Amino acid sequence: MSKLCPLVFLLFCSSAFGISVKPLELYGTEEELVSRVIKVTNTSKHDEFVRVNLYQLLNPGTPEEKEVKVENADSLEMSVYPRRFKVGPGESKQVRLLLPNSNIQSEKLYRIRFVPVSSFDKGMTIKVSYGVLLRVLPVHKAPTLLYRSDNNGVNQFTNAGNVRLHVLTSCHSEKRPEFRIYPGANIEIKSGCKAADYEFKDDGGNKIPYAP
């Protein structure tokens, strides 16, 4: 299921569900995020019922990426409120982030899905949701990049820091000329390419050098 309403379905979504969600991405430290809100607006002529589901993203940016649902009773690290609500025509509802000041050491990713439902009693949902990407960042950011090359044919970069890095590459064997690599993840240098074909930057656009 897509993070956002697919472009080809925009007209369908706006007429079928009648809600808009802003912003679609939030990031900051725990202290910064507790003051942020997500605004859900009803643009239809009818009451809209919305459920809010929270997921943590594991192995982001890799083929093993998956979403794990976070329930209120399961975690003291992250929650949102309210988890379900009704919003009248032309009205807006604010959803708040609930985070303790736990001083996380490495970036964590969550996806908050806003799912229109026919009613809370019936519980039937529409199979399209609006997703907000949430990045919880450490207070002290330490972007670090390692490069490994050995006689066994291993040539890879590792994000050894605690925040994501932006990757730009001119390697013709790499399908994505630009992508992101998250803490703990590796990139294997494609066949026919070399380390110099890759460039790494932090969120601020600063180049990150690498060390063997």
What are the SSEs and their pairings?
Elements: H1 10-17, E1 19-22, E2 25-28, H2 30-33, E3 37-42, E4 48-58, E5 66-69, E6 79-81, E7 84-87, E8 92-98, E9 108-117, E10 130-136, E11 145-149, E12 155-159, E13 165-169, E14 178-181, E15 186-188, E16 198-201, E17 210-211
Parallel strand pairs: 2-10, 11-17
Antiparallel strand pairs: 1-3, 3-8, 4-5, 4-7, 4-9, 6-8, 9-10, 11-12, 12-15, 13-14, 13-16
Short structural description:
With 212 residues, the protein is mainly β. The chain has helices spanning 10-17, 30-33; strands spanning 19-22, 25-28, 37-42, 48-58, 66-69, 79-81, 84-87, 92-98, 108-117, 130-136, 145-149, 155-159, 165-169, 178-181, 186-188, 198-201, 210-211.
Count the helices. How many? 2
Q: Tell me about the largest β-sheet.
A: 6 strands, mixed
Radius of gyration: 20 Å
In whole angstroms, the N-to-C terminal distance is 39 Å
Instruction: Give the class-level CATH name of the largest domain.
Output: Mainly Beta
The number of distinct β-strands equals 17
Sheet-strand content, in percent, reads 35-45%
- The CATH superfamily of the largest domain is Immunoglobulins
How does CATH name the architecture of the largest domain? Sandwich
How many structural domains does the protein architecture include? Answer: 2
Structural class: mainly beta
Overall spatial form = elongated
The helical percent reads under 10%
Low-confidence stretches: 1-16
Order of helices and strands: HEEHEEEEEEEEEEEEEEE
| Assembly category | single chain
Here the CATH topology of the largest domain equals: Immunoglobulin-like
Q: What's the overall average pLDDT, rounded?
A: 85
